[in-house]
Fold:
Amino acid sequence: MIVTGVAGSGKSTVGRALASRLRWRFHDADDLHAPASIERMRRGEPLDDELRQPWLERVQRIVEEAAKRGQDTVIACSALKERYRQAISAGVDGVQFVYLSAEPDLLRARLERRRGHFAGSMLLDSQLAVLEPPAGALTVDASLPADSIVDRLAAELS
Structure:
């Protein structure tokens, strides 16, 4: 399962909690960014498709390896565009996407309170500009408490 959404939507929080609840493996795609990309985003400079490509390939390898090993896995990954979602799920059947949807004001408030993460509020507008909400994903209101979201996702999987 891949939990998607823009910065501040709660991907990592929800993904980690869901994986813990289900006793699945968890991966945060933010950990797969190249150091130069992290520094760029820390400065508020969005990544373009060329800079994202190696990152998408690293995420896809995790999806592929999990499928080969039969490991149930949750990945928190922005996957803002349809072609990114296609790239990370390429060659693997049955990849489920969850889209955490929230109003920009809520996202901005969350990002302004967040400390120690490279994706701050300066990136929000650029992420919203390129966002293509996934058509086939389970869409969840990210303004709900994380526990409520996890309850709903766990119920959907059972």
About this structure: The chain has a mean pLDDT of 91. The first strand starts at residue 2 and ends at 4. The chain has seven helices and five strands. The chain has one domain: 2-157.
